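User: We ran a pulldown and think these components assemble together. Before we commit to crystallization trials, I'd like a predicted model of the whole complex to look at. Sequences follow.
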Amino acid sequence: MSTYNDSFTDTSEGRVFTVSGQDWDALTDQLGEVADERIVVNMGPQHPSTHGVLRLILELEGETVTEARCGIGYLHTGIEKNMEFRTWVQGVTFCTRMDYLAPLFNETAYVLSTERLLGIEDDVPEKAQVMRVLLMELNRISSHLVAIATGGMEIGALTVMTIGFRERELVLDLFELITGLRMNHAFIRPGGVAQDLPPGALEEIRGFVELMKKRLPEYADLCNANPIFRARLDNVGVLDLEGCLALGMSGPVLRSTGYPWDLRKTQPYCGYEDYEFDVQTWDTADAYGRFRIRLNEMWESLRIVEQAADRLAKLEDAPIMVSDKKIAWPSQLSIGSDGMGNSLDHIRHIMGESMEALIHHFKLVTEGFRVPPGQAYVPIEGPRGELGAHVVSDGGTRPFRVHFRDPSFTNLQATSVMSEGGMVADVIVAIASIDPVMGGVDR
Amino acid sequence: MTEGNVPDNVPDETTSPAAVEQEQIGTRSGMFGTSGTGDTSGFGGLVRPVLFPAPATAPYGGWYDEVAGALAEAEPTVVIDRGEITFHVRRDDLVAVARILRDKLRFEFCSGVSGVHYPDDAGKELHAVYHLLSMTHNRRIRVETTAPDADPRLPSLVPVYPTLDWHERETYDMFGLVFEGHPALTRILMPDDWPGHPQRKDYPLGGIPVEYKGATIPPPDTRRSYN
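Assistant: Here's a predicted model for the assembly, 670 residues in total across the polymer chains.
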């Protein structure tokens, strides 16, 4: 036990001082002979610039970081375990909450693996695939906006944050219009998507694209050549291609080394091969390059969104769910004044017209469908890199095991390599350039 | 996905699984996924094995044979299912296999390791599943190895794929698989003093006491459910 004046304990590693706001002079007097510049700083888990509940254990020599370690797990919610006790469709509701900045990517990764297990990959209707692409690219824009916004805030560029969240709100409004929810949509389901586009959605999307084309240059004007911004980001958090591959880095961090690896191009899914867009790379392998890649990728996402909207305009009234009645969600959903729910027409049908339809609905909703035994892994290109779900089925109505390979989790391992030897202030920039989301890291 | 856009990283011609014995990883009883109910249909006594896809026989087709040939020394069991190839290797061969895959066949990128607990798969209850990617050739494979519950040790692949550092810690944390040679195998997601490994199938699940006349919500694995 330590008193106010006696704030140290002797351990086998040496004398450990606990500093928690007391008089600094009293502490330095106690340091006496052992005073040197080496201190261990515990940063987080509750620190505004550690992206949620990330704990950093920094060993400092003056202001230079000699060792950086991460402590994670503060947001572990057992989502993978929970999914083993819910039906295959309900799993979407859980995994959408993992990486809360990219919910639609989590859903798609899980759903694609499930569809491969079901053997219905080729049966998913075109409109469902186009809607998935549209939603994912809108989601990529909102995720990159947060990455840039919070990254800017952490180095003091508060305007970047305010305009970043301003634009993100527009994307979330679109999500609310299309899926009924701003986040945690549970909209992409095995076999398709939950419901059709609401009337007027395409006009809203086109209006958003036009607005973004005016707003995105603001970020370039604010940041691209800003000497303070460049001074903080240039040559910070450097990790070359060799290091990236050894550490399993993917996404903007990998592309900032100049390697154009993007699963949307190299291993297309959801019909990405039918869209025109370019893979964005940079050649500096530093935080600035990652910022520019995110900025450029938002432009590419806008291109894809435009193409997807054009295709959706031609797909009015096309099916959005597989025709297999044993897999497709029995009810058509609609958005009412109190959120998303079963459509009234469907309720009228099962409650008043057809006993068989009621039984079918009841069985599929309570019991769910069975998935043939086996395992599948279908990775997709999330905003932060390769996101994939390793899904194992034992032939039951619930997943036997679901494991998410979350890019935040893997990329966060590079913290120490990127920050050791640098200044303590650069640790923040390096982590912001990885853009980890703790919901995805801890799951 | 339509017929025309099957990714070109899967060979066109692959052999269909031959009629060899499929791997049984468990049994399923009853017809309707429930137990303990008054099922008078007679189907409640039905017992069926849970069969995983059967191993394929050589030649496997396309580049699958190239990879299988390079790994011949480890005598992997090859399963080709749903367009994905899995090499089941013995745990003693794991490091050698990984080195060949990385150095000779250019599987530069490891997506991580995922543990799976099959309590009924006697003698190899714990599986570790690695997903590897060759960016040079645009190929994906899965390498799977097992360890018995009584001796849950696997060699660590961190020296080959440093990215597995946290992944192996997570698998240890969740399944109790001990990766020998890992630089610091400690818990990563659960608290350091946590007892047990939560993702194992035999991990006890908690119920929830509710404030109504001594009622409780039973743990999810003991609730009446369809599975």
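The CA atoms of residues 107 and 134 of chain B lie 4 Å apart. That may be worth checking against your pulldown data before setting up trials.

User: Thanks, that helps.
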